[in-house]
Amino acid sequence: MQSVKYPFLTKEDNDVYKALVGEDARERDGLELIPSENYVSQAVHEALASSLTNKYAEGYPGKRYYGGQEFTDAVETLAITRAKKLFGAGYANVQPLGGANANIAMYFALLSPGDTVLGMELSHGGHLTHGHPVTYLTKIFNFVRYGMKDIETGEIDYEEMRRVAREVKPKIILAGFSAYPRELDYAKFVEIAREVGAIAVMDIAHIAGLIAGGAVKNPFDYGFDIMTTTTHKTLRGPRGGMILTRESEDLAKKINKSVFPGLQGGPHMHNIAAKAVAFHEALQPSFKNYASQIIKNARAMAEVFEKQGARMITGGTSNHLILLDAHTSFGISGGEAQALLDRAGITLNKNVIANDTRKPMDPSGIRFGTPALTTRGFIEDDVVQVATLMIDVLTGRDDGAVARAREGVHALARQHPIPSSFIHR
Ligand code: DSN
Q1: Which residues are near ligand 1 (CB < 6 Å)?
Q2: N or C: where does the chain have the smaller number of CB atoms within 10 Å of the terminal CB?
Q3: Is residue 142 domain-shared with residue 271, that is, in the same domain?
């Protein structure tokens, strides 16, 4: 029997109810290719809906400002212990409300106003919180850039990075990205950081699940000092952030002070409970298969676009995402490609590419990936069909092409329902 979703909302707030069932249907009937999105498990949903949302818990386990902390301490300690095990970390702070908060707390823990951070050029795949001029961070800290030497292969210009690092003496060398499809040379980053006396930090938000599942390298194994992350992307947890410290107790203490009371107030304990659940799931052997299948699927999609002669930034992918130059490949902007595919039930996002000739609000690129489809059980043959449907839409571009693709999308969605343990009830 079909369980009744939202039994109280149907009676008490029909407007919100309608929006929620609409989103449920969108997620169920369409194909989610935004590479930073995923489906959380029923167990994670249950933790998110728990009574811990009612509780204030400023402080850390065993050291809180308010009473009644028996169960908040239990879930936060579980989340910390599991996070440390997943990533081989000495210390974990699981309280950041998101990836931006995690990065801001990390900067304020390690820097004084005016200090320099050497981070990845944003149009080469970096992130807003790595020092985009629209963020307040640039009013306080000085951000300088490294980038790719060769956009067609994705090779980072490490020698230029070393030269700039020697010149500007950054306090932090920041690795990590939100739109870069290759692995970084972690040993090189650490070597340069040590040479100039910088702290090596990696923002692993996009690939945290791939690291946890052993499908890509772990920057801690190469000597990175700190890793920041979100918990809701490939790691498949609730929305939120986390900061991991490899071994320095001194750095970990600074991070804790910076998160609370420096930046945030009461931690969202229902969310921390959900993080603990997600970390438990990521520690299971099946998560390794999930992580490696994400990459196999992304590669299979890239091969289809390669055969089509499409231009992918860095020439393909070694992780979960593909950054495709829609303008060169199909003669349309990233925004037009996103809108066309949206109509067919395929969700992805327009994205700036390196040396983009178009404006950020309607850039040349589209960014897509396989974490959410892989949770639905898609394997290589299935994602090849998705890529083919995408090409049909991007080359056809008329109502007929969109309608035909929409049928194909619905058929694939029906063949791969969101697993029952991942449906929100
Ligand atoms: N918004 C995230 C992404 O899509 O990559 C990064 O913050």
Answers
A1: 36, 99, 127, 178
A2: N
A3: yes
